[in-house]
Design a protein that fits this description.
Layout lengths: L15 H15 L4 E10 L4 H13 L3 E5 L6 H10 L7 E5 L22 H19 L3 E5 L8 H9 L4 E2 L20 E2 L8 H16 L3 E6 L6 H15 L4 E3 L8
Parallel strand pairs: 1-2, 1-7, 1-8, 2-3, 3-4, 4-5, 6-7
Helix pairs in contact: 1-6, 1-7, 2-7, 4-5
Length: 260
């Protein structure tokens, strides 16, 4: 995990709020029925100023947020601090499992903690360790959903998730291999904070295009990395949440309640 801020948040364009509003209005007008919009924050475990600010924004806008928590990073004192930051609205937070240690095990290619290089027994052991730790620390607040680090995992991992009784997996849209029948995949479409566009202008155009396209689908998942957020990123997020709540056909959803 790094904390590098994407280029788009270093210089938002003049009139960005008006352009964002127009994007949401166009998406709302284009939707035939409704779009379920949900938010997922990754790499959660360590309390801090940025995480507190994130919680405050979602609490103020009364928007649910799915928290992908790295089990090996979480301790009882950290959990006490994290849960305390959202204590006024505990119903908004879906605390769920984000891998085990967030460690890459693939010898080549794209990073994966639960990738094809690892045997089934090692994958199962890490799934069990992570779930057991989160259950022990969080208790009833833990939700049995699974977000793999880097949004990637193997076919064996998906089968194990289903076998072990996880309610759903959450990856990027179009991820392969597909999840087995009976294991919902609540895909994210919009990446707010890890885009690698070389310039702020290109990053902004890419973000707006991605957002409008995704809001036009029956379901839109928006991914957050709070460690990468600066003031501009927080202002944008706060504005986006407010705009989405004003749209009749763009329905804010809790990942726990998404239809299968």
């Amino acid at each position: 995990m790094t904390s590098q801020t994407s280029a788009v948040w270093r210089r938002l364009p003049k009139g960005w709020a008006d352009e964002l509003q127009a994007c949401c209005l166009r998406a709302n007008s284009a939707v035939n029925d409704t779009t379920a919009v949900f938010f997922r924050a990754d790499d959660v475990a360590v309390p801090g100023r940025q995480f507190r600010r994130l919680m405050e924004i979602f609490t103020r806008n009364e928007v649910p947020l799915s928290m992908a928590v790295v089990p090996a990073w979480l301790t009882p004192p950290r959990w006490q601090a994290l849960s305390g930051m959202g204590a006024s609205r505990p119903d908004l937070w879906c605390w769920h499992q984000h891998g085990w240690r967030h460690r890459n095990h693939e010898p080549e290619g794209k990073k994966q903690e639960f990738g094809p290089f690892r045997p089934a027994d090692a994958l199962r052991a890490d799934l069990e360790c992570g779930r057991r730790r989160l259950n022990a620390i969080m208790g009833a607040a833990f939700s049995p959903l699974f977000t793999p680090p880097w949004n990637r995992c193997s076919e064996i991992t998906l089968a194990l998730l289903q076998e072990m009784g996880y309610d759903a997996v959450s990856r990027s849209r179009g991820s392969q291999p597909p999840a087995p029948s009976g294991l919902p995949d609540h895909a994210v479409d919009v990446d707010l904070h890890t885009d690698r566009a070389p310039s702020a202008a290109l990053g902004w155009q890419r973000l707006i295009d991605q957002l409008e396209k995704s809001l036009g689908r029956p379901r839109c998942g928006i991914m957050i990395h709070h460690q990468r957020m600066n003031d501009a990123a927080f202002y944008f997020l706060d504005t986006l949440l407010g705009l989405l709540r004003q749209q009749r056909r763009l329905h804010i959803a809790d990942m726990r309640d998404l239809p299968t």
